[in-house]
Amino acid sequence: MADDLQPARAPGGTRDVLFPESARWEALVARFAAVVEAAGYGLAHTPIFEETRVFRRGIGAGSDVVGKEMYEFEDRGGRSLALRPEGTAPLVRAFVQHRPPVPWKAWYVTPAFRYERPQAGRYRQHHQLGVEAIGTGDADLDVEVIALAHDLLAGVGLSRVDLKVHSMGDPTCRPAYLEELRAYLRPRRAELCAEHAERLEANPLRVLDCKRPECRAVTAEAPRMLDHLCEACRRHFDRVREGLAALDVPFAVDDRLVRGFDYYTRTTFEFTAPSLDAAQNGVGGGGRYDGLVEVMGGPPTPGIGFGIGIERLLLACDAEQAFVVEPPALDAFVVDVVGGATARDLTARLRRSGLRADRAFDGRSMRSQLKAADRSGARCAVIVGPDELAAGEVAIRPLRVDEEQVSVPLDAVVDAVRQRAAKTPQRAPDASGTAEDEHEDEHEEENP
RNA sequence: GUGGCCGUAGCUCAGUUGGUUAGAGCGCCAGGUUGUGGCCCUGGAGGUCGGGGGUUCGAGUCCCCUCGGUCACCCCA
After folding, report:
1. How far apart are CA A56 and CA A72, in angstroms?
2. Going along A135-275, which residue ranges are E strands?
């Protein structure tokens, strides 16, 4: 019973995003939409849960995400469902189901769920922005997709983001390479760390990605995928690198880059923010998945996409004091010390005229109401006291600039507030430190 | 799933070898200013000391359990 008295909390690893922070999220999503829609991508919403097999088949039963991190459940009809742990598999499922004309270019913003222990930059429910482009294997599409992610990251004002790219090969060249890698590792198995000695046969690539020194030492001389690409994959990768260079997207080839989902073929890439001193500094990543549509039951169709973690991106922005967003200020705050009817009517009139207005309730003192007006960040207070009431006027008191207050007839309030709004710079409620303009036009980009 | 650290007001924290009615700053409310916000002053509200059990004459302080938070490993956004 004592348990019932404990106040309720959001479940572990989840977070509330309340007002002014939510305004920043909205601004980020809007920025993303602008970038990708300008490139022909259309917004797609798909269900937040899918049949479990969509992920099991798509992401791969051997991956950690599917093996131990999925929010899996049975519904009342006994169906096995799962909350989406990532964005690609559901969109590929939607592609297979609806068969839109190719190339199909879609973007999404969605929560993603993974049952992991929360820590800095990692949540059980996090949010991703991403795109998927399905229907062509042209390497220039890889370049386009990577450049879009880069442009967003640079556009929000992050000065330092590292991009690593790699090629995973394809069914022509990868199996032979994997066999060669296993053959190299087998005799050295005893030198590997415990987990990777275990997984050597199932997923030898993971060993390359291991950060432990013992694995590092063993793999220093191990054969690399890049040296074993087939002719087609090599040409593809060359074209991707050439394209990135042509578009001034800085990158480094990382021949140890291994990504967590089984579906990747050829190009894979990852963006990290060195400014994040937390362990989780990957802000986004993606790759090509030329076999995935087929795995989902569609015709053989190539595709590529990426996902960006909203929480991590914003964390990285915090570290650089980038992407500071000021929510729009109120145009007016109505102060009424004569009963409240005027405030009621006036706020409604201002709002219906397209202005942003608020007021105080509970018939508080003028001092209290003006305090509230100040705190609200409103550009001016519209004051109604006994004198104004008698004269059919209101007093317009500027709050953000040092100017005299003026009296205007009741009829002229909307115009007066509108004029004030036009010439008063905005300042958000509780604005702390640097106040920038709400409109996000200028942002320098520095390329290393 | 494994491990470290931490739970005292809305927030950030103090709380002396266990010892009377648990404190501060900020925030909030009210007043100083019977018509005017930001600064200043005064007062006020607000605490199951995460929860449960134990030791003790006495527990915020010690012990056990539990819940929660946080950071890291694994892996990922």
Report:
1. 11
2. 162-167, 252-253, 265-272
Strand B nucleotides below 7 A of a protein CB?
1-3, 28-31, 33, 35-38, 48, 50-52, 67-77
The Cα A178–Cα A341 span in angstroms is: 77
Q: pLDDT category, A446, cuts 50, 70, 90?
A: very low
Q: Give the pairing type, strands A357-359 and A332-336.
A: parallel
Cβ distance A346 to A334 under 8 Å? yes
Q: Which residues contact A41 (CB under 8 A, 6 or more apart)?
A: A105, A106, A107, A131, A133
pLDDT digits 0-9 by tens, A301-337: 999 999 999 999 999 999 888 999 988 889 999 999 9
Nearest DNA or RNA nucleotide to A401 (CA to C1'): B38
pLDDT attached to residue A442? 36
**Å from the A6 CA to the B51 C1':** 8
Closest residue by C-alpha to C1' distance, nucleotide B69: A12
CA angle at A93 for the pair A87 and A95, rounded to the nearest 5°? 100
Give me the domains of chain A, ranges plus CATH numbers.
Answer: 13-173+229-319 (3.30.930.10), 332-423 (3.40.50.800)
